[in-house]
């Protein structure tokens, strides 16, 4: 029985191919030892634009555009004023079709997450493939993780809900982006404007924060700060109250000078145990890389992805901040 393995990227495919013994290289795939290992380049397929459903131009009568079923098309690139299917994507889809048709079963090795599941299912559905699929679910590319993952394959159908979640996200992006962008452009009367499910709320938050900062009017206040001592121990005390009037603060200061004493009304003492911080997930990594190094979110993700493919970090596109069991066992060696 011959087995096809599809990974999300060529570098990941090479790692898996080395484990299963598929060492012979061909254009777009590797084979050997009963395996054919191929790969995608991220999202090879996207949802078709309105023109594919017969809606040309921007027209108020067309809105809202809600396809009865969405069509998949190869990823497109812009050539002049038009978009055409990416030649490299078309070639790789042809290779994947050949690999799938040449095998009896498929091991899905796209990234262990929602989008990874979507990438495979879109390809699988677009090619009208019916071969049985099993899922390789790993969060690191160590040899041990890959070998254990191959020994614990699960039916790909167990990840249906993950695919449905990603599919819903993809279609929601399309429905909101296409309809809202066309509606705004039509309402404006001229020009083309872009709205999106994520980009527009994000832009709104940025604009709101910008306006708050621009319209902020600082209100001066004063506090009383004194340096004193008790049984030979020097300490600084600052008034808890903030005075909007400088004269009031000066009056408090004058009374302190006259009395030359402070009364401690209460003392609180507690022990605090501070746990070490959790590991980074993608969001916290991107925030810190931006604040400390000025990296954009895309640059941080690109660096993290390269480190992952070089087996130096665990899978970066995750919300988890904990170490997987297979990696934890190898930490003492580090």
Helix content: 40-55%
Can you tell me the residue ranges where pLDDT is under 50 for at least 5 consecutive residues?
Answer: none
Count of folded domains: 3
**How big a fraction of the residues is strand?**
15-25%
**Secondary structure: number of strands:** 13
> Architecture of the largest domain, according to CATH?
3-Layer(aba) Sandwich
CATH class identity of the largest domain? Alpha Beta
Domain Topo IA-type catalytic: 159-334
Organism: termite gut metagenome
EC number: 5.6.2.2
Enzyme class: isomerase
Would you write up a description of this structure?
By secondary structure, this protein is α/β, with parallel strands linked by helices. It contains 10 helices and 13 strands. The strands form 4 sheets. A 7-stranded mixed sheet has the order 2-3-4-1-9-10-11, sandwiched between helices. A two-stranded antiparallel ribbon has the order 5-6. Strand 2 (24-26) and strand 3 (29-32) form a beta hairpin. The longest helix has 29 residues, at 160-188. The chain starts with a strand and ends in a 6-residue tail after the last helix. The mean pLDDT is 90.
């Amino acid at each position: 029985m011959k087995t096809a393995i599809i990974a999300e990227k060529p570098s990941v495919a090479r790692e898996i191919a080395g484990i299963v013994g598929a060492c012979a290289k061909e254009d777009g795939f590797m084979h050997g030892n009963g395996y054919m290992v191929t790969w995608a380049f991220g999202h090879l397929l996207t949802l078709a634009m309105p023109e594919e459903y017969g809606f040309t131009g921007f027209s108020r009568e067309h809105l809202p555009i809600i396809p009865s079923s969405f069509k998949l098309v190869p990823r497109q690139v812009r050539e002049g004023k038009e978009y055409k299917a990416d030649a490299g994507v078309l070639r790789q889809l042809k290779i994947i079709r050949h690999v799938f048709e040449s095998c009896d079963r498929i091991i899905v090795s796209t990234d262990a997450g929602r989008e990874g599941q979507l990438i495979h299912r879109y390809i699988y559905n677009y090619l009208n493939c019916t071969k049985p699929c099993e899922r390789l679910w790993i969060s690191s590319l160590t040899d041990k993780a890959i070998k254990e993952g191959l020994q614990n394959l699960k039916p790909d159908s167990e990840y249906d809900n993950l695919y449905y979640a990603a599919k819903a996200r993809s279609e929601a992006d399309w429905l909101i982006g296409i309809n809202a962008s066309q509606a705004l452009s039509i309402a404006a009367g001229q020009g083309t404007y872009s709205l999106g499910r994520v980009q527009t709320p994000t832009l709104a938050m940025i604009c709101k924060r910008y306006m708050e900062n621009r319209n902020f009017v600082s209100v001066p206040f004063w506090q009383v700060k004194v340096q004193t001592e008790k049984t030979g121990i020097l300490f600084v005390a600052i008034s808890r109250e903030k005075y909007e009037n400088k004269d009031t603060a000066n009056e408090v200061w004058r009374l302190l000078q006259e009395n030359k004493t402070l009364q401690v009304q209460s003392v609180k003492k507690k022990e605090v145990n501070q746990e070490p911080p959790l590991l980074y997930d993608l969001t916290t990594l991107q925030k810190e890389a931006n604040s400390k190094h000025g990296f954009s979110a895309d640059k941080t993700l690109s660096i993290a992805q390269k480190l992952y493919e070089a087996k130096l970090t665990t899978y970066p596109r995750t919300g988890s901040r904990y170490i997987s069991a297979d990696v934890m066992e190898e930490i003492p060696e580090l």
